[in-house]
From TrEMBL:
Pfam families: AMP-binding (PF00501), AMP-binding_C (PF13193). It comes from the Bacteria. InterPro entries: AMP-bd_C, AMP-bd_C_sf, AMP-binding, AMP-binding_CS, AMP-dep_synth/lig_dom, ANL_N_sf. One of its GO terms (molecular function) is medium-chain fatty acid-CoA ligase activity. This is Long-chain-fatty-acid--CoA ligase. GO terms for biological process: fatty acid metabolic process. The chain crosses the membrane at residues 211-232. Gene3D superfamilies: 3.30.300.30, N-terminal domain of ligase-like. Keywords: Ligase, Membrane, Transmembrane, Transmembrane helix. Its EC number is 6.2.1.26. Belongs to the ATP-dependent AMP-binding enzyme family. The lineage of its organism: Bacteria, Pseudomonadati, Campylobacterota, Epsilonproteobacteria, Campylobacterales. Residues 428-504 form the AMP-binding enzyme C-terminal domain.
Length: 523
């Protein structure tokens, strides 16, 4: 199936919606509504400021922005003038932000004031020329600007001399691999639109649908499926700043008549245990619950469908390098434990180590081909060549395919940890622990909690001879250098880490020890 692309870039969506249905509500947030014509007005104003600030086509503008109208305005304004948006994980710490901003050579940063502590020195340590602060920021000057003051300006951005084309770079999404630093997946408008078109087809989306966004907008899944897809279909978005308190998510779902709900397994497991008010169960309008990032157990799936009879829970699979959705179960055909069928126009095959397709039901590495496949990794040509072969993307995930073409995820080929839907590098945490005085060897692994179906981060540490370390002091050090979601839940001090003949730590043995209840000395 060939896809037809009605738009060349994101801004053309806004032009069409503002023209065809100007008064329709594009965004609900708290007690505010923003119509499509008003949203275009905000975008044009911010685009004028960007141009005035010498941001040109091809320049990178980073975003450390929480869920908000400003996130969407920034994304569309940046790309309107042909610049490239770089949405960053807001949970990162100063050193992590610094690395990414330098890696992508960002010229400007849009930042929520709530992240000021972790971003205050970035003007000195990166190539950032200006920071645009969302919300109230007290220290405005010639390099620190207020988003709301810019938005209040009478200036509008009008004609674009060079409009972005379908195969131009739209966004750089930094993805967690399993080795080294995060890499920037370069996504074009075609990449992301292919997800929107295929998603609209698979979920039967109409302009009457309303999507609730409480998962972080920087996440590639949320960005493509819950932000760009509804705008693409002239639907509405209900923005919630945070998943906490969850009662507010349910309240907004009910009051704003939400029809499409995206969550992760830990959240759906929590929903199963929660006492949901009868009036929510009776009056909610949700027709589709979408689950991604990690597998749901068959029991959870069955229990959820029994509890929420009016809606369908659909599991899917994706990765940032594929913009990100690859597979999803369909409204008329689902299989427990499966991540569904490839989205329209995408191809998925299961291959062995020689990249030869294996038989139906056999386990191998998942490869993906289609317009979703990224252009490559920024500044990493070698990694791109290893990942994309003749248009096919090697995912690093192990899976199998049944006779109906449904895909099942079996395991991850590498050691990537996924906690609450966010990817975590073991090696990145290991490198930071290694910098602490007295560490001889370290291994970080993820262990799946069978109750929550989420992964916990565990660190195993071998100390240098004669060294004593207090766990509380090590934890205080880690809190300064890594995001909270990466912090190990348990730290084990061991006499010696299991290694092979070449001295490589055998993480598989560590995982088996934990699963088998092996006794480890904890200090």
């Amino acid at each position: 199936m060939m896809l037809t692309y009605p738009y060349q870039n994101f801004y053309e969506i806004m032009e069409a919606n503002a023209k065809n249905d100007p008064k329709k509500t594009a965004i609900f947030m708290d007690d505010h509504k923003v119509s499509y014509v008003k949203l275009k007005h905000h975008i044009d104003t911010f685009a004028r400021f960007l141009e005035f600030s010498s941001i040109k086509s091809g320049d990178r503008v980073a975003m450390i922005v929480g869920n908000s109208v400003e996130f969407i305005v920034s994304l569309f304004a940046i790309t309107k003038i042909g610049a490239i948006a770089v949405p960053l994980n807001t949970f990162l710490k100063k050193e992590e932000f610094e690395y990414i901003l330098n890696d992508c050579s960002a010229k400007m940063l849009v930042c929520s004031a709530s992240f000021a502590n972790e971003t205050k020195n970035l003007l000195d340590t990166t190539k950032i020329e200006k920071i645009i602060w969302c919300d109230d920021y007290p220290h405005l000057d010639e390099r620190n600007y207020s988003f709301s003051e810019i938005d209040a300006s009478a200036d509008r951005h009008g004609y674009v001399t060079k409009k972005p084309k379908l195969d131009d770079l739209a966004c750089i999404v930094y993805t967690s691999g399993t080795t080294g630093k995060p890499k920037g997946a370069m996504l074009s408008y075609r990449n992301i639109f292919s997800n929107a078109i295929s998603g609209a087809d698979s979920f039967h989306i109409t302009c009457k649908d309303r999507f609730i966004v409480f998962l972080p907008m920087f996440h590639s899944f949320t960005l493509s499926i819950m932000v760009l897809l509804p705008l693409f279909t002239c639907s509405s978005i209900v923005i919630v700043r945070s998943v906490f308190p969850f009662a507010n998510v349910l309240k907004q779902t009910l009051l704003k008549r939400v029809t499409i709900f995206l969550g992760v397994p830990t959240l759906y497991n929590a929903l199963l245990k929660a006492k949901i008010p009868w009036y929510f169960m009776w009056f909610n309008q949700v027709r589709i619950f979408i689950s991604g990032s990690a597998p749901l157990s068959e029991q959870s799936l069955n229990d959820f469908n029994a509890k929420f009879k009016k809606a369908t829970l659909l599991e899917g699979y994706g990765l940032s390098e594929c913009s990100p959705a690859v597979c999803v179960n369909r409204l008329d055909h689902q299989k427990p434990l499966s991540v569904g069928l490839p989205l329209p126009s995408y191809e998925v095959k299961i291959v062995n180590e020689e990249r030869v397709e294996v038989k139906t039901g056999e386990v191998g590495e998942i490869m993906v081909k289609g317009d979703c496949v990224m252009q490559g990794y920024l500044n990493h040509a070698d990694a791109t060549d290893e990942t994309i072969i003749n248009g096919w993307l090697l995912t690093g995930d192990l899976g199998k395919k049944d006779s109906d073409g449904f895909i099942y995820i079996v395991d991850r080929k590498k050691d990537l940890i996924i906690s609450k839907g966010i990817n975590i590098y073991p090696r990145e945490i290991e490198e930071i622990i290694y910098k602490y005085e007295g560490i001889d060897a370290v291994a970080v692994i993820g262990i799946r909690d069978e109750q929550t179906k989420d992964e916990e981060v565990l660190a195993f540490i071998q100390l240098k001879e004669g060294v004593e370390i207090q766990e509380s002091e090590l934890r205080a050090y880690l809190k300064q250098h890594v995001a909270n979601f990466k912090l190990p839940k348990h730290i084990y001090f061991v006499e010696e880490l299991p290694k092979n003949a070449t001295g490589k730590v055998l993480k598989r043995v560590l995982k088996e020890n934990v699963k088998n209840g092996g006794i480890l000395r904890k200090r």
